[in-house]
Amino acid sequence: MIFLDGDDFQSHVTIMQNKLSQARALSADITNKNFKTILLNSFPSSWDPVITFLYKDILVSETISQLQVW
Question: What are the pLDDT digits (tens) for 29-67?
Fold first, then answer.
């Protein structure tokens, strides 16, 4: 799933979290760190100035909070 400029941010995050839950329910071994990378990679290159520093070792919830501010 890819976020497009103009899409609703919260809806995108919610859908991604739902997909994570579904995958884990099917026994997928997706760590929070993996999910954060998947989430960050779903944003377009126009988000790169913000996303670049979010790959650091912070919680997924903090990453999402930082993205909401932008």
Answer: 999 999 999 999 999 999 898 888 888 888 888 888 888
| Domain edges within the chain | 9-69
CB 12 within 8 A of CB 1: yes
pTM for this structure?
0.82
Task: Give the list of residues 6+ apart from residue 11 with CB closer than 8 angstroms, or none.
Answer: none
Tell whether the torsion through CA atoms of 44, 48, 68 and 26 is positive or negative: positive
User: Which tokens is 53 given?
Assistant: 């520093």
SS3 27: coil
d(CA 39, CA 13): 8
